[in-house]
Each structure stands twice: as C-alpha cells, then as structure tokens.
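REQUEST ID: PR-0412
SUBMITTED BY: lab tech R.K.
PRIORITY: routine
TASK: structure prediction, single protein chain
INPUT:
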Amino acid sequence: MEWGFELWELFSAKTLEGKLSWFAGTVLPIAGFIYAVFAFFKGKWPFRRGNARQNDKENSGLQSSVQDITIRLPDNKPLTEGQIIGEILDLDDDAKSRVLETLNKIAGQPPEADETREEIAEAVEEARAGDLTDIRALLNSRYQKFAAEHGGVAKNLAEAARDLAAVEFPFNKGQALALYRQATELEPDDFWSWINLGHSARDCGDLNEAMNAFDSALKVAAANDDNREIAISETAIADIFLTLGNLGEGKQRYIAANKALNRRADAAPDDFERQRDLSVSHNNIGDVRVAEGDLPQALKAYQASLDIAKKLAAADPGNAGWQRDLSVSHDRIGDVRVAEGDLPQALKAYQAALDIREKLAAADPGNAGWQRDLSVSHEKIGDVRVAEGNLPQALKAYQATLDIAEKLAAADPGNAGWQRDLITSNVKLADTGDQPAKRLARALEIAQALRDTGRLNPADYWMIDNLKKRIADLPGD
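STATUS: complete
OUTPUT:
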C-alpha cells in the first residue's frame, strides 16, 4: 500500500480537523472493517478526497468568527470579501478572521486627527478586495503615533499593535508576533491578545509559545468567569496537545471546554449560537474518540451534536449554515457506522446528508462550496455501495461525483483543488471497472499538467508514477 497521500494529509493539514480526519478516515478504516470490505482496491486508497467537514469553519476556538465563506463560480455572484482575501493571501481561517475583524472595526471607528473618513473607507474597501497596502500603511501610522505618545495610554497602543499585527501577519509573521507580544505586555488582562498571540505562534510553528499564550488566555478567562472564553482557551490547548500526539490530554481539554459550554448553554437555552457552540464541542470530543478507536463513545458524542443540529435546523430552515451543520453531523455518524461495519446505517446517514446538500445546491447553484459538499456525499455513498458489492449503484454515485468535479474544474481551471478532485473521481471510476484505461489516462494527464504548471504539491508527485504503473498493469486487449 502506498501511504504518500495519507501521510501528507496528516502533516500538512492546517487544522486539527484535518489531522483527526486522517486518523478517522485512514487509521481506523484500514485497521478494521474498512480494510476488509475494500480489500479488492489493493492499495488504491491513497486517492482520497477530504470530507466536506474539513472545510467547516469550526476552528478559531469553537467556530470561526469569519462569515461563512461563499465560493462563487465566475459566471455567478461576486466572491465574498473573505473568499477574496483568502484566495489572494492564502490565509487560514484564524488569520483571515483577524484581518476581517480588524477591517470591520476600523470601518466603524471615527478617524484619528490626521485621517479622513474617505481615506479610511478607501483603504478598507481595497483591503476587502485583497489589496492590504493602504490599510497596512494607515495602521502602521496609527501605531507609530501611539508609540510616540506612549505614557498613560497603554490601551491605545495595545489596540494599535493588535490591529497592525492582524494585517501584517500575512506578509511579516515575525513582526506580527512581536506586535502581539507587545499587546499582551501592555494589556495582560486582555483575553483576545493572548488568543491571537497563541494562534500566530502556532501558525509560525512555535507550539511552546502558543501553549503558553493559550494558558495565559485561560487564566484571564477563569478570572473573568467567562465560560465561552474558557471553552475557547481549552479548545486551543487541546488542539496543541493533539498536534503533539497527546490524545489523552487533548480529550480532557475538550471535555473541559464542553463542560464550560454546557454551563453557558444552560444559562440561556434559547440562545441558538450557544447551542451551536455546544454542538461543535460535542463533535470535537467525537473526533478525538475516533482517533483513540473508541467508536461507541465517538458515536455518542456525534449523536449529541446531531441532536442539537436537528433542533437548530428545524428552528430556522432557511439558515443554510445550520442546514450544512446538520449534513456534516450525518456524515460523522456515517463515518463511524462504516468503521463499525454497519453499512445499512452508514448508508442511511450518508443519504440524509445527501438529501440536505441536494437542496442547498439546488437553491444556490452558483455556490461551489455547496456543489463540492454534494460531490463528497455522492462519493461516500459510492464507497458504501462498493463495500456492499453493488457496483452499478457505486458507478452511478461516482459518476455523479465526477459530473460535479468537471463542472467546478471547468468554471475555475486555475483551482488546483478542483483538478485534484477530478483525479480522484476518475481513479474511483477506474477502480470500479468503468473504462479503466480511459479514466486512468485522464487522471494521469491532469496530474502531469498540475506538475508542469507548478500546481501539484510536491508531496503528491508520487501520483504520477502510481498512475503510470496502474496503466501499465492493465490487462491487454
């Protein structure tokens, strides 16, 4: 078996979700039932796609404060500001959140003495379109001004340091870290200064400083008796422990976060956002239970999350984000059912997710994110059909996946992720007996084109040799 893609998924994943998905989607299935029922693939597992939930906005502590990113096809509505910034600067969700929050705050503030509203509005508008040049200059000017005036105005300088750090991080991580450190020194009781320092240090690879920052944030949260801040801190610390491979400590921190969020939800049971935070927390516990191999407890946690997601979706059927949350919960249940070997229940869960995603995709055809979620559902159903031995239905599901992948790739040819999905879809169809020579040749063509244009991750170069070998091993006419 070739493990190149699986290991790359683990070590290159930016979020805990990605790392745990590797454990849940690779270690457990191959170690148990999935290995047996998919044995006929004979090592072809490396060609896999990430779950829909890997794109979920459930990091940044509990869930991202970034607005749900709506990826648009070029012939449809414009991209949202978050997607524009993310595409141009290649920011992860935490860094993107810091930029957008800073822009929104600056846009709503009165200008400083040497600024004009027009100047601020123009700088913010350009930044929302992906050009941060003017906003960086403006915030640097503010910072230098407050630094020169420093003396009894630590709060002003700390705020200026945080704002500048947010927009500098994509360009100069070292400077951004120094600014966040300064903010914590000036305002050691400011919770978000510590959280932002921790996320930035983590993104720079300094897990020790990140852990210390999150621990300081936890102390501030405890002093404030703020359950949500406690949960955010505990979750951030759990993420570090899991990155280090300490599942036990990570689980305990997730449980501590869950207890804090239960207290918060109990204080206002009709507050939907508190309920949603609690749902995400249950999923975090379920993910680490899966990584430990404790499927019954994982299922229990996922079911708790699903129960909340159902209530939220029923309370506001028009909320697409909550509908998607519900589909993701069904996916998690399905994944555990597959690992348990309960294919009928897995299929039931995946079908429930598919039904939701079909409605979302139909209601907003230009939303590429909804379309890809739908393709993932078709693929999961195809995998179960293969395990059942129902190849005609598997082919039908995989073809639906390919149809969506081709549409997305044609609409945005420069998106390497869509191209990679095409590779996976063609390989799945080939493995299921549908025109193997044609499908594998197409997959190879795409992989080589990505490599030749510098868009294939070096960790994926193995694909090309793998596909060539598969083609060479095909039986002759």
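NOTES: Confidence is low (pLDDT under 50) at residues 1-45, 53-60, 63-79.
REVIEWED BY: pending
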